[in-house]
Amino acid sequence: MPERPAPTASLPPGYRFRDLGPADQRDVLTLDGWAFPTGASVESLAEAPSPLSWDRAVGVFHDADDPDAVPVDGAVPVRSDLVGMHASYPFARFPVPGGTTRASGLTWVAVHPGHRRRGLLTAMIDAHVSRSLARGEAVSVLFAAEATIYGRFGYGVAAQDLRLTVPRRAALRDVPGAAEHTVRIETVDPDRHAALCEDLHERAGRDVGGSGLNRPGWVSRETSELRRYFWTDHEATREGREPQRIVIVERDGEPRGYTTFRRKLSWETLGARGWVSGGEVVALDAAAAKALYDVLLDLDLTDEVRPFMIAPDDPLVHLLASYRGAAPTLYDNLWVRLLDVPVALAARRYAGEVDVVLEVRDALLPANAGRWRLRASAFEDGVSAERTTDAADLSLDVRDLGSVYLGGPTLAALAGAGLVEVHSSGALAAASAAFAWPVAPLSSWVF
Ligand SMILES: CC(=O)SCCNC(=O)CCNC(=O)[C@H](O)C(C)(C)COP(=O)(O)OP(=O)(O)OC[C@H]1O[C@@H](n2cnc3c(N)ncnc32)[C@H](O)[C@@H]1OP(=O)(O)O
ipTM of the predicted structure? Predict the structure, then answer.
C-alpha cells in the first residue's frame, strides 16, 4: 500500500484520544446510553457480551476542573470523562462483487450530547481513516444512525434493504421442492445454533439463486465477539417481545436455511392482535426460502409479519401474489467509503468489459484524488486500476464511487441525478453496466 498523508483534523483543546479496553465497559455503556437513549439500565446492558474488538475501540476523554470537587490546597481536582468514542470491526473477508476485500466496519460512534458539534466526530473519522489505512483496509463500511451524518466524510449509500408488512397467510407462488422440507421451530441457543447458522449464512451469500455469483455486502460475523453477541438473546433488546425464536428448514436431513423471529401479542376487544418481527432470512435456494416464509406467514394468533432488512431482490418479492399489499419501503443499508481507491477498485469484479478513466474528487484523502484508468473483462480476474494522465471519461466524488462500488446504485442513475459528470457518453453506458452486479448488495444484520 503506498505512503499516504496522515489526516489533519485534530481534537479541540481539552480533549484527548485514549484507546479503550474491557475495563472501560461500564463507561462505554453509559456513553452509549447518552447517545442512543433506550431506557435500559447500564446494569442490564452490561449483562450482554460486548461485540467490540477492544483493540479497535478509541475513546475521546474530556479533562476539566471537577465542578463537584472541593479544592485541595487551592487547586481544583481535574475530572476526566469519556465523552466520545468510535470502534471498528475487522472484516477480513468483506464481500464485494465477485470477491472479498479487507474492510473496516465503523461502529459504536457516539458523542455525549454536552460535547456535540465541536468537531469530535470529525477528528474521530480522521483517526478511523488513518488507522484503517495503516492496517491495509482499503474500504470502510457502516450503518448510519442518521442519513445526514456520513456523506460529508465520503461515505455513499451502497445498498438498500426492503421493509415489508405482509398480511398473515398472504398468497405466495409455488416453488417446487418447498413442501419437501421438515421444519424445526426452537428458541435461539448460541451453543446449538450459532455454528450451524454462521455456516449457512456464508454459503447462502457465496452463490445466490444458483447463479454462481455472490451477494456483495453479505458480511459475516467474523469475530468471536460478534458471533457471541449476535446469538445471545439479551432482555434489553426485546422491547416487550418474546425471546428470540428460530426456524430451521431441512431437506433430506440437511439444514437448508433459517430465519429468526419474535412475536408480540396484544389482547383487544375483538381478540388477539399479534405481529411477527422477522430477523435475517438465510436460504441456500428458493425452495428453502419459500419453506421459511410459509412458516412465518402462518403463525397462530398473528395478523402480520414484518421481515426486517431483506434484499430488494429477495425471493419473497417475486413470490408474493400481491407485492404492493406488503407496503414495501426501501431503507439505506450499507454505506461505503473507499479509503484506497485503486486497491478497492481492483478488489472487485465487473459485470461487463470496461476501459474507463474515472476522475475522482476526495477532499479528505487527497491520495485518492485524480484520474484512474480502470480496465476489466466481464466476470474475470485481472482487473487493473492505475493512475493515468489521460483525459477523464467520467468525473465524480469519492462518495458516489462508494455508492456504486457494491453494484447497487448505477453510475447512469447517479449521472441522471447530476452527481457524475459525463465527458464521453459511450463510457457511461459501458461503465454503468460493468459496475452494476446482477445480485443486489445487502448486509443481513446491523453492525
Ligand atoms: C456508524 C455508527 O456508529 S452510526 C451512529 C452515530 N451516532 C449517533 O447517531 C448517536 C447520537 N449522535 C452523536 O453521538 C453525535 O451527534 C454524532 C456522533 C452523530 C456527531 O458528533 P459531533 O461531534 O457532534 O460531530 P462534529 O461536531 O464533528 O460534526 C461534524 C459535522 O457533521 C454535522 N453533523 C454531525 N452530526 C450530524 C447529524 N446527526 N445530522 C446532521 N449533521 C450532523 C455537524 O453539523 C458538522 O457539520 P459542519 O462541519 O458543517 O459544521
Answer: 0.98
Q: Is 83 exposed, middle or buried (0-12, 13-18, 19+ CB in 10 A)?
A: buried
CA 405 to ligand 1 centroid distance, Å = 24
My answer on whether 100 and 131 are in the same domain is yes
Annotated binding site: 109-111, 117-122
Cell 483493540 sits on residue = 55
Q: How confident is the model at residue 159, as a pLDDT?
A: 98
d(C-alpha 125, C-alpha 105), whole Å? 12
Q: Write down the pLDDT at residue 5.
A: 54
CATH code of the domain containing 96: 3.40.630.30
User: Ligand 1, closest atom to CA 125?
Assistant: 28
The residue segments making up the domain with residue 298 are: 162-332
Q: Is residue 59 a part of any domain in this protein?
A: yes
Does one domain contain both 370 and 319? no
DSSP code at position 20: -
Q: Give the number of the atom of ligand 1 that is nearest the alpha carbon of residue 112.
A: 14
Q: What is the pLDDT of residue 69?
A: 83
Low-confidence stretches of the chain (pLDDT beneath 50): 2
Active site residue 447: yes
Please pick, among 15, 61, 94, 150, the residue that the annotation labels catalytic.
150
Q: Which residue has the cell 407496503?
A: 327
Q: Output the residue whose Cα is nearest ligand 1's atom 36.
A: 149
Determine whether 387 is exposed, middle or buried from the number of CB atoms within 10 Å of its CB (0-12, 13-18, 19+): exposed
Are 195 and 315 within one domain? yes
Q: For the chain, what is the domain count?
A: 3
Q: What atom in ligand 1 is closest to the CA of residue 143?
A: 1
Burial of 212 from C-beta contacts in 10 A (0-12 / 13-18 / 19+): exposed
Q: Per-residue pLDDT tens for 95-106?
A: 999 999 999 999
pLDDT, tens digit, 9 for 90 and up, residues 374-395: 999 999 999 999 999 999 999 9
Residue 117 CA to ligand 1 center (angstroms) comes to 7
The residue out of 286, 307, 332 marking a domain boundary is: 332
C-alpha cell at 292: 421459511
Distance 121 CA to ligand 1 centre (A): 6
Find the distance separating the first CA and the last CA of the chain, reported in whole Å.
Answer: 27
Do 396 and 351 sit in the same domain of this protein?
yes
Buried b (16+ CB within 10 A) or exposed e, 390-429: eebbbbbbbbbbbbbbbbbbbbbebbeeebbebeeeebbe
Q: Is residue 5 part of a domain?
A: no
